[in-house]
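I have been asked to look over a protein record a colleague put together. The record follows directly below this note.
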Amino acid sequence: MYLLKVSDSCNWTGDLHGDVLQSTRIRIVHFILHQTFTTTGEDLDDLLVNNVFETAFCLHERKGQKSLTKSWARWTALFSGQPLTSVKHYFGEKIALYYLWLGWYTKMLVPAAALGVVVFLYGLAFFRSNPLIKEVCESNITMCPSCDRRCEVWQLSDTCTYAKVSLLFDNEGTVAFAMFMAIWATLFLELWKRTRAKHVSRWKVHDWCEEEEELILKIVNDPFCQPKKFQHSYLRSTLVLALVTLMLMIIIGLAQALVVFRVVAAPLLSKSDWAFISEHANFAALMMSAVLHYLTIQIMTRVNRWVALKLCEIEKTNSTFASTERSFTVKMFTFQFFTLFSSLFYVAFFLGRINGHPGNYKRIAGWRLEECHPSGCLTDLFIQMAVIMLLKQTLNNVFEFTIPWVKSFFRRNAAKTLRRKCGYCYRKACRAEDGRVEPCDVCKLRHWLKNYHLTDTDAFSLFNEFLEMVVQFSFTTIFVAAFPLAPLLALINNIFEIRLDAIKMVSLERRLVPRKTNDIGVWTRVLEAIGVLAVIANGLVIGITSDFIPRLVYRYRYGPCATGTATVNCMSGYINDTLSTAYMSHKGVETDFLPSQMMMSGVNMTQCSYRDYRNSEDYSLTPQFWLVQAVRFAFVILFEHVLVVCKFIAAWFVPDNPTQVKNSRLHDKLARLKEELREKRAKESKSTEV
C-alpha cells in the first residue's frame, strides 16, 4: 500500500491501513502474473501460446457489474450522465478518462452541430433563387466530352441537380463555418485540459508518474529487480523510418489505384444499357469509388496494425508498456490517417486541376483524367466524405455491438447445455469434506464460466475505441468546409457510442485490466496536430477547391456590378464566364475529340465548352486565371494566419488548470509538508529521549 500510494506523492497521508480498491489489486496481480517466469524461462504469455493454459482473464465483480448496468450500461440511460467515479473504481482511471473525454467531446459537438445545421439551412433557403443554378438549368451550352472515345458532347442543363447540390454546400456560410470549426477545435482541447485537470485532481492522481508506478510494481514483485534501461539505435531508427516511408508510399499507391478506378469506371458506365446509370456515369463512378475506398479502409486497418506492431518490435527503444503504447499509437494513427485521407486529399486538391485541356489532356494508363463539374469540385469531396462517414460509423457500430452479442449468445447456450450434461461434475467438484454441496462455490463456478464465455479483450481494446473517435474528430474538423453536417452526424453517433461501449465493456466483454493514468496520453498531441491540420486543410479547401474565390473575383472585377451593367444580380453570367471554348480544328490546333464524339441528336457540333480560363485561339491561360490564382493564394495565407493567431489567443486565454485545482494542489502539498515535518520532529524528539 505504501509503495502504491507514494506514487501519488502529494496525496500520501501515511495511513497504511486504508482500503485498497479491487482495481488496484487486479493491476498488481496482473503485473505479477506477467512478470513471473518458470524454471525454463517461460512467462504466462509463453505458456498460453504453448497451450499449457487455455486463457487468462480478469473476472467481473458481480456487485459492481450490476451497479454499472443499472446506472450506466443500458439504453434507457441514453441521455443520462455518466457515473465516472464508479467507472474509475471498477475499470481504472484510464478507461474513466476515455469516457470523460468522449462525453466532453460529445457535449462540445452540440454547438458545432447546431451551427452546421444553420449553414445547411441557409444554403437550402437561398439555393432555389440562386442565379447560378438558374443559369445552369436553363442554359443551352454544349459541353465537351468528359472522357475519350466512349463519351459524347452533352448539355450543361443535364446537370441541373448536381449544380443544386454543389451550391447547397458551396456558399458564403461555409467559409464562416470553417473558421468557427478551427477555433472550436482549439477551444475543445483547451477546455478538455481543464476538465481533465478537475477530475484527476479529484481522483488524487494529478502527480502520478507512469514510470515510477511501473518501478514500484517491479519492487513489489521482486525487491532485487533492476530497471529495464532505455535504448536507442540510429540504425534501427533509420530502418523504421525507411519502412514507415515505404508503407506510406504503398498506402498512397492504393489511393492512386482508386483514382484510376474512377477514371476507367466513368466512361465504361456511360455506355451502360441502363439509362439511369449511363446518364449519371460520373456520379455512379464516384459512389462506387467511395464504397471501394471504405472496403480498402477495412482491409488496410488490419494490415496497418500488423505493420505497426512489427515496427515497434524492430525499434526496441522503449522501457515501459506506456512508452511502447505511445510509439504504436503514433505509427498506427499515421498509417490510418493516410489510408483514410489520401483519396480525399486527391479529390480536394488535385481533381480537375491536372487534367490538361483539349489537345493536351493528361492520361493515366491511356485513360484521360477526370474533370470537375462546371459548378465546382466541392460536391465530389462532399459525396466522398458523406459515404465514408456514414458507412464507417454505421457499419462499425453495428459490427462492434452485434459480434460480441452473437458470440455471447451462442456461448451462453453452449454453457447451459454443458451445465445440464455436467451438473454432476459441478456438485462433485464442490462437495465439502462431510459430503454436503456448497452452493456458493457452485455459483462461483457458474460466474467464472459466464465470464469465460464473454468476448476476449486485450491491451488494444481501449486503443481501438480511441482510434475510432480520433478518426471521427479528423473527419469532423479537417474537411468540414465541404461537409457542414459532419458535426451533426458525429454527435448522433457519439450519443449511441457512449452507451454502446458501456454495454459492451460491462456485459459483453471480459473485464479489462484496470490501469492508472492521469491523461489520455499521446492522443492529446494527436488532437493538437489535427487541429493545426484542420486550419490548413479548410483554408485550402475554401481557397482552392471551393468556387468562393472565383465568384468573389467575378462579382467585383468581371461581373455586371463591376462593369456597371447590373440588371438583376451581380452573379449573372458567372457560369458562362468560367467556361472556355474548344473547336474541332482551329488554326491548326487539333483537339482530342473524335468526330463521333461531337454528334448530338444527329447534328455535327463544331465547338464545345469546358471549365477553364483559356483562350480559344491557342488554349493559353487568360489574365483572369492568374488574377483568380493570386486571390486564392492571398486568401489561403490570410485565412491561415488569422486562424493561427486566434488559436494562440484562445489557448492563452483559457488556462489548462482551473484556479480551484491549483489551490487544491497547493493545499495538499502544504499539508503533506507539514505532516512530514511533524513526523521528523516526533522522531527527533524520541531519539533525544532515548
